[in-house]
Amino acid sequence: MLASLSIRDIVLIDRLDLVFQPGLSALTGETGAGKSILLGALGLACGERADRAMVRAGAEQGSAIAVFELPETHSAFALLEEAGISFEPGEPVILRRAITADGRSRAHVNDQPASVGLLRSLGDVLVEIHGQHDGRGLLDPKSHKRLLDEFAGNGERLAAAARGWERVSAARRHLETLRTDRARAAEEETFLRHAVEELDALGPRTGEEETLAAERRFLQQAESALSDLQAASEAFSGADAVASRLNHALKGLERVRASLGVEAAADSAQAHAVSALDRASGALERALIEFDEAETALTDAASAFEVEPGALERAEERLFALRALARKHQVEVDKLPGLRSEFADRLEAVADGEGREREAESALKAAEADYARAASALSEARKTQGEKLAAAVMAELAPLKLEKARFRVAVTSDETRAGPSGWDAVAFEVSTNPGAPFGPLDRIASGGELSRFALALKVCLAGSDTGIVMVFDEVDQGVGGAVADAVGHRLARLAEGGQALVVTHSPQVAARAGHHWKIAKAEEGETMRTRVVPLEGSERREEIARMLSGAEVTEAARAAADELMAI
Q: Which of 282, 361, 512, 519 fits 492 for a cystine, CB–CB 3.0-4.6 Å?
């Protein structure tokens, strides 16, 4: 609901604060009094195009503030959340727009800076203005499909079509990926086959580079080590003579020891000699043992460094081959085995690609068939319900003095326009005269007819735009009497449980309203000012009587006003 509208320095209005109520509110006044200024200010707050000519002469800027009280489930809150505008559930939504005399515009939502685009989006879900030059709401062809679906209760059918379209889209993406991969793999097939053969021929193993590098270092050092060992071995040349002399010395010591006898006094010279001979014999025996072990170890060490001829060349050749192949493919040597598996898988994909594509094509056809069934069911429902909506609107046209007009809901199916909401284009079309072709509502109908067509549509679509404020600008243009009364009756019905504003010159329409404002223009000094006055009781009766009789209000007009207000 629009709770209030505050206007500052817009055209002829210097300061105006209006508080609105639920139900139907009528705004009346003489032609040129400024009713269009109010609607322009409301449009300004709701994101319509700003023109610096709107700023009151002599003022630096003009502004409009619209305050809306909304249920917590209103779609406006989703827009606020998406835009990052903070809000508290249950608090009003405040749209503020200011325009300076030099044409600069600023927008705020809940006192937070916002884009004009956000104001426009919020305005689209908060206010629906039906007038001679309005292209929003019912007159916007982009809204017709949504409105028909809401009238038809197509929620489940729309959901089924959306799910089907998502499956079709996923299947198409999968097939396209397979085709792309297969085409790329086919282009690389020669390279992949050669690469796999090259890797198979070399047969790289994980960790092999480190092993080969260590082996190469050993082999590089083996020649030098063998030379040193050979030099050490040469020091043992004549070793047999040395060992023979050591044995000869040991036997001599044993003969001396035997000649001294076994027993001797502990403190005798003989005992000291025997002890010395024992130590000498032990040392010679150990020397002979160590001499033999050293010679054996030296021989073993030399044999350990005796490598097969060409071993170094072979190790280097393989190590260099592994590193060269790794550089070629820009990977580490240890990654070559894994690279071989990857290349083999890509080769296999070339071989299996055709079969996979056939499977994906079959899956896509199945998904398209499911989607086609859902879209067809949605189309049938739209066509059936479109005829019901057209019949309902046609029933409303005659009382609104549009008895010669025809209305239809054109549902055109085109599979090339397939999408999540089906493959239909929906348009509300009218023919205003017998024999005249059908055409878009906003191009065929005149200004007054547009408002009445919109009113008929709104009556038939009642409940589809919960929470939207409906504004009708001179919906009664060119009609009077019973037709005007029919207009007022339908406006009152439409406003039940909601809110509607009507700018009207018809006393029959104004009398149906639950709230009434009079818009008047008065001269103040050297300038003209527009003022808005709420009317109740006798003041309202006088205004309706004026609308009935003209400049001179008669008692008969007042009596007629009483009758209208009593209905």
A: 512
User: What is the C-alpha to C-alpha distance for residues 251 and 266, in angstroms, rounded to an integer?
Assistant: 25
Say what the pLDDT of residue 253 is: 72
Which is nearest to 386 in space by CA: 439, 337, 424? 424
- Answer whether 0.85 is exceeded by the pTM: no
pLDDT tens for residues 361-382? 999 999 999 999 999 999 999 9
3-class SS of residue 541: helix
Lowest mean pLDDT among 55-59, 198-202, 378-382, 483-487: 483-487
Could you tell me which of 537, 523, 515 has the C-alpha nearest to residue 25? 515
Of 443, 510, 494, which Cα lies nearest the Cα of 35? Answer: 510
Distance of CA 431 to CAs 139, 141, 479, Å?
15, 16, 19
Q: What tokens appear for 372 in the block?
A: 């086609």
| Distance of alpha carbon 176 from alpha carbon 169, whole angstroms | 10
Q: State the Cα–Cα distance between residues 24 and 37, nearest whole angstrom.
A: 20
CA–CA separation, 454 and 433 (whole Å): 18
**So what's the pLDDT on residue 185?**
72
CA-to-CA dists, residue 221 to 226, 306, 435, 511, angstroms: 9, 11, 109, 115
Q: Which tokens belong to 513? A: 């309203």
Query: Model confidence at 112, in pLDDT bands (50, 70, 90)?
Result: very high
- In the sheet where 93-100 sits, what is the strand order? 13-19, 2-10, 61-68, 93-100, 105-109, 112-114
**Count of H-run helices and E-run strands, the chain:** 16, 15
Beta-bridge partner residues of 62: 99
Residues 63 and 14: their CA atoms lie apart, in Å, by 10
Q: Which of 518, 384, 466, 556 is nearest to 128 (CA)?
A: 466
Contact 12, 37 (CB under 8 A): yes
Task: Say if residues 126 and 77 touch (Cβ distance below 8 Å).
Answer: no
Residues found in the chain: 567
| 367 contacts 168 by C-beta, under 8 angstroms | yes
